[in-house]
Each structure stands twice: as structure tokens, then as C-alpha cells.
Amino acid sequence: MTGQGFPGKLPHAYMTAGTSSFSEFLMQAAPELLPGRRPLPPGDFTEMSAHATTIVALRTAEGVVMAGDRRATSGNYIASRDIEKVFPADGYSLVGMAGTAGLGIELIKLYQVELEHYEKIEGAPLTLNGKANRLATMLRGNLGMAMQGLAVVPLFAGFDNDAPTVAEAGKIYSFDVVGGVYAERDYDSIGSGSIFAKGSIKKRYRRGLSTEDAVKVAVEALYDAADDDSATGGPDPIRDLYPIVMSATVDGSKRIDEAVVAELARSVIAARTENPYG
Amino acid sequence: MAMQFYTSPEQIMRDRAEFARKNISRGRNVVVLSCADGVLLVAENVSSALHKVYELYDRIGFAAVGKYNEFENLRTAGVRMADLRGYSYDRRDVNAASLAKAYAQTLGAIFSEQTKPFEVEICVAGVGASPDGDELYRLTFDGSINDEPGYLAMGGDAEHLVEVLSEGHDSEAPLADAFALALRALSHGGSNGTPRELTTDVLEVAVLERARPGRAFRRIEGLALDALMPRDEAEPDLDPDEVLGDEPGDDADTPDKGEKPQPSE
What we know:
With about 280 residues, chain A is an alpha+beta fold.
């Protein structure tokens, strides 16, 4: 073959036309970097890695809001008090994850590169639906590991630039471990505290909520999740740790200022001190 | 068996080089230059979909002339290399020099091993914290790599364009001045020595913005490009003194002094 005399030359897989997907390119060029491609010995590895817990996402009049608590657990230990589980996937979308923390963060990092890579190669970003489907495809590669206890479940939400009106532009997609993708109507939550978070949102959510109000509902939902689920961390004024909240609107995806979230969390604590059942 | 005709290696290389050079020289020109606001990439390009100027990574851009399928192939490979490196190490570990070197090796290998060399000339541009930190690499079809001093031109008329650029280039100049210089260079070569008139629909403009965090590459098109164009259509015919007198009033000052102070006062 050619290229033997030129070790610095770009390898063949780099020069092959055809795919705009970074993970498909990795399959050819560096399969060891793909999480789903690592052989595992038989057994159950549920207790092996830290677990990330609760994420909530809500549709608003301006787009979407996503929030996540800061705790990761390993069995009955608190593995981390300040883990970050909600990220901007690209300029207009957000992604959070629950389940095996190490794999989840790796999946999100790969997903961020995947979206940026497509945008650079094609000269235009994927549609929001396309982004959600792409995440589902990447998740499918993880099924074997999920069955051995290393499951990751993401939550994806974003602002759809192709939507007819701004009020319809916010979209939320949930996933299951086999790679099913489901469009959610108003809100969704994943992780161990999700049952309690959803119960909390159900009582406070209404359609057409402003971003500001949705942030409040999200912070309060995480408080309720932490109240009843030991694996979800509540706001921690002692260490100055509060949920991570992000929004995706017509102005793009951005993190809600920490000071704003801290203030909201403190007011939730104050209100619950008066009335513990909210 | 009959004896094959002997062709000396010099002859083969010369033929290939001539072949590549001839085809590249038919292409329209591209200018890349560094200025105070970043690295400006300007191409003369009639197509609005098939670009000549692209983003490779956070601080790195790519420009090319020649055969589209060949430089597109190289560009894709560069994006893959940059993304793979950034993914497996860190985003800051991706730099223009290593990409340029990989391109040099690749073009060199193709030139000496394959019957037909790539008919392309490419530029890898990296924007630094200051104009001194900018990197501009020009790579030719045979894998030669040149580290250019703040400006470069590629395409059929490159030599003449470089003359214009070298006279007017100032790495501390604002974007509007750098763009006017790029335009002056690209409009070189009209009939009887008069400058050609270039309109926005044959220009492809992008900038690697120095001050922008993260991905610095931004295309300047539509209204943004209209605003950057020298206001006076007849401007290329004016003599240099008048041109210099015209620009600050037209490009830089109008948006700043005309609009911004009003709300605050």
C-alpha cells in the first residue's frame, strides 16, 4: 500500500469520503475510544462506578430549561457533592444524564464533538430531531454495557430553529437504555429522584411558563427529589453548592447565573422552613 | 520483452509539478491576512454553497484554491484529525502547526507516489492572543510548507496579489482596513491594468476573531458583509490617498459614532 515511506501522512480512514459523523469515523480510526466497543468480562458491574442522579427539563414560552442536582453516589456513599450533569450539547441544545457517571460524561463529551463535527463538515447544524436521533443511535451501542449494570440514560432538550413560532420551539426528548427516543410534551425528569421531581413539577407547571418561572419550578422540583430520594443532593448552603440550571432559547444555550439559582434555592429553603410540605 | 522508455525522475517530477501548477493557476484567488481583530480570510468565489474558506477547529481556519474534491478531501481529514485530537487529549492541544505538518506529509506522499498530484494549494491559519501569535502556513501541491509573515495569497495571480499585500499590510490595522486591503489585492488584474470590480456575491469572507472565546471562526455574509464593503462603488478607481481618506468615515466610524452613543446620551 501507499504511504509506507511517509509515516506522518494522514491515515486512509481520515481521507475516506462519506461520513459526517465523528463516532462513525472513530469506528474506523480509533475504535478503542468508543465506549460501547470495549469488551467486558461477564458479570454485573452496577456497584463499580459512581451514579449520577436527578435531572429535570421543562418547556417554556421561550424554549427549554434543564436542571440537575450535584450529587453522585456509590452504593450508600456520596461519591461527589459537586458533579456537573447538565451540559450545553451545542449552541441551541442541552443534554443531561443519569446512571453510570463516568460513562455518561464520556457519552456527553463524545456527543458534543459529534454535533460540532457534523456542523463543521456539512457547514450547517443538524435539525433538533436529527440531534435527538443521533443521541439515540449512540446510546444503542451501549446496550451490552447497560445490561451488565452500566446503564446511562440521557435527557435532551433544545430550541428548534425550524419551528414555526417561538412558543413551539422548545422541545424535550427522553431516552431509554435500548435507544428508544420519545418526544415529551411539557416536562420530563430522569434518574433516581425523577418520580418525586415529576410529582413536584406536575403541581406547579403550566404551559407557557417564562424561563424565569421555569427555573424556580425546576429548583423546587430538585428540592422535592432530594427530600425523598437519598441519592439526590439538595441545595447545600454550607458548601455553597446549588443545582446547575441551563436554558436554551432563541439567544442560544446558556447557564443560568449561579447567584440567581443560589438565591432561588435559599428562598425555597426558607419557604419550606415555614411549611415543610411546600 | 520490449524495453520501456526510460524517463528520468527529474522529468517525472517536473511534469507533475507543471501539471499541478498549470491547473492551480487557473483558479480564482484567496487572500489570508492577520489584523488587529484576528485573521481575515477572503476568497473570490462565485458559489455560495461550495466554500473555499472553512473552520478546522476553535482557533484554526482553512482556505484553499484548486480542485474542489481534492481540497474538500483534505479539509475533512483536517477536521477529523483536529476533532480526534481534541477529543482524546484536550481542546488546547490542537494547534495549527501540527495540522499543517500532517497536510505537508500527506501532500508530499501523494505528489511522489501517485501519478497525478493534488491540484491544490491550501492555507492553515491559526489565530493567537496577539497578531504576533498568529500562524499562517501555506502548503503547495508537492508538500512544501511555508510559514508566511502575516499575509499570504494563493491562486493564479498570487504573485501580484502578494505585492499589493506586502505594500499595504499592517498587522495592527482594524478589520475594515484589512478587508479593504484584501479587496484591493483581489481586484488586481482587470483589463489594461485597471482594477476589477468585485461585488458581495463573488466574495466569500470569514474571520477568526481574536477576542471571541471558544470557536473563533465566523463567516461574514449578508448584511454584515454589505456593511464591511467600502461604501463608494467607484472607490477602486480612486487614487490611494482618497481611498484611505474615505474608509474610516464609511466603515469604522458610522456604526460606532453614529448609533451607539445616541441611546446613552
